[in-house]
Amino acid sequence: MQLQDILYSQGFGTRRVCAGLIQQGLVQVYQESGAMPVLVHDSAAELSPAGLRIRVQGVDWPYHRLAYLMLHKPGATECSHRPSTYPSIYSLLPSALRLRPQKSAVQGVQAVGRLDQDTTGLLLLTDDGQFIHRMSSPRHHIPKVYEVGVRHPLDAGQLSRLLAGVVLDDDPAPVRAAACEALNEHQLRLTLTQGKYHQVKRMLAAVGNRVETLHRSQIGGLSLPDDLPPGAWRWLRPAELGLLQP
Ligand code: URA
Predict the structure, then answer these.
(1) Which atom of ligand 1 is nearest to the CA of 192?
(2) Whose C-alpha lies nearest to ligand 1, atom 7?
(3) What angle do CA 202, 208, 212 make, to 5 degrees?
(4) How confident is the model over 77-92, as pLDDT tens digits?
(5) Taking 80 as the threshold, does the pLDDT of residue 175 lie above it?
(6) Whether the Cβ atoms of residue 187 and residue 212 lie closer than 8 Å to each other
(7) Ligand 1 centre from 84 Cα, in Å?
């Protein structure tokens, strides 16, 4: 693959801009195996992209044909490209991730489902349209774990109703928590396998309580790592992608 096409595929701008970056001596390449970076001036240089790392204007970038990443969503951010009140989560990502050209029905990385403005925690993003579809499909029942802070003291009745199923206002079929445990009087851990709009908040309201804080700690077998602070993102490792299989 030509180096200018590799850069283009990673979101570094149009082919012309990418060729310019290379010709101006702003791009080095090296293999993951630990070789030293080499400056390449020829934008048409043929390179094998697998395992390639590029350094563009001093910033290291591992080649990924498709991008899969996790973000620790902070509070007061919106999962929208056109936010109304708070900054967009997309502003927390480098522009190359937003500018990746379309490969699989999706242009730039997109959030896999949305979290509310005030919800914090684990959010996946990708430019793999099939992955988004698989992860969002109700058929696959991928469990999502939420740590929920509530206004009123929890009681056994509320927990058993969440497990037995509550009816929300848009559907007569009850929705139930796959698991539910009180961590203390005002804190519970809830596992859901559906992804309805404001589902946690509406379920807690249906049992007479109110969500005060909401944090997603896990999707499938993947937990939010302790060393990923709010606002930070990182690439998913291949083994972590495996933890998300239905
Ligand atoms: N349920 C909610 O109510 N809000 C979220 O952000 C996620 C799940």
Answers:
(1) 8
(2) 115
(3) 60
(4) 999 999 999 999 999 9
(5) yes
(6) no
(7) 18
Architecture of domain 68-139+222-242: 2-Layer Sandwich (3.30)
Architecture (CATH level 2) of domain 3-62:
Roll (3.10)
Residues 10-50: tens digit of each pLDDT: 999 999 999 999 999 999 999 876 678 999 999 999 999 99
How close is the Cα of 115 to the center of ligand 1, in Å? Answer: 6
For residues 131 and 112, the answer to whether their CB atoms sit within 8 Å is yes
Give the E-state strand segments of 41-82 in sequence order.
52-56, 59-62, 68-73
Which of 5, 42, 116, 155 is labelled catalytic? 116
Q: List residues near ligand 1 (CB under 6 A).
A: 115-116, 119, 198-201, 214
Give, using CA atoms, the residue closest to atom 2 of ligand 1: 198
227 labelled catalytic? no
CA dihedral sign of residues 200, 201, 204, 209 = positive
Query: In the chain, where are the structural domains located?
Result: 3-62, 68-139+222-242, 144-219
Fold agreement between 3-62 and 68-139+222-242: no
Q: Whole-model pTM?
A: 0.94
Q: Which amino acid is at 184?
A: N
Say how many Å lie between the CA of residue 197 and the centre of ligand 1. Answer: 7
The rounded distance, in Å, linking the Cα atoms of 148 and 190 is: 7
Question: CATH homologous superfamily of domain 144-219?
Answer: Alpha-L RNA-binding motif (3.30.70.1560)
